[in-house]
Amino acid sequence: MRADRLVAALLVLQSRGRVTASELADELEVSVATARRDLEALSAAGIPVYPQVGRNGGWALLGGARTDLTGLTAAEAQALFAIVGPATEVAPEAKAALRKLLQALPDPFRADAAAAADAVVIDPTTWGRHERDRPPLVDLLQSAVVARRRVRLTYAGWDQEASERDVDPWGLVDKDDRWYLVAGTDAGRRTFRLDRIIDAAVTDEAAERPDDLELASVWAGVVDAVERERSRTTAAVLVDAEIVSWLRSSFGRHGHVGAATDDGRVRMEVAAPTAAMLARQLAGWGAQVELVEDGPVRDELVRITAELASRYAT
Fold first, then answer.
1. Final residue of a domain: which of 173, 194, 223?
2. When you count CB atoms within 10 A of the terminal residue's CB, does the N or C end of the chain come out lower?
């Protein structure tokens, strides 16, 4: 739409002060003639945009003029405020930023954007548990990511052995109240759990970060690798219909529901990293879950059953 393009042209002028029609055409991916007509339209609308001739000529936004237009459509503004609004309860700095952005919106957008910001509340405390504190290292590592500075970590691996390493911080991920640092190392991309970082210090050395890096895509790859590891052992089971939803919740993406059987039960395929872990998750359901195949999971269930019978038999 031309209105959106005119807003974009105005924002380019506001950020640069002066542009040629050719530069604006490249920025907006339109023809030079179209860019010139847009500039003329802005001027005709009373916005102080004037052409200047000469070697350093072009179109300029004169007198330090500013606009309260952000370039957002009404739908985009509502979507943005719906996402950022709830975050103000857990990130106080966002509240002031949101207030400033609200004032920058055109008047017709403000009421709906403010309503979208208040439409959802985030409660970080889970039922029956204390609120988890934001790890103190988050702010330090975030500043290193933004400043592109290498970080020296003292890190405890899965074997609890601590080691020191220099990394290039790429970004932070908060997944289900557990924080991770995605970073580049001499051995390639690595992911570090913040609760295993014993100490961290930001260095003066510049960090390397791939120009085409998209943190969301990188993290999606990490998640895929972890989920493949977590589903190395699978088993087919028949379960009572009333516990299907509980098993789906317990196994998450590793619990696949199949067809119902003639006796009213439901076939499911479940997975876990090892046969022992899978058996432990199934054992608690007793006769409501029936394993339909032989193998290491059945062997583990037999072992668990024998242990329980031995311990609790009178």
1. 223
2. C
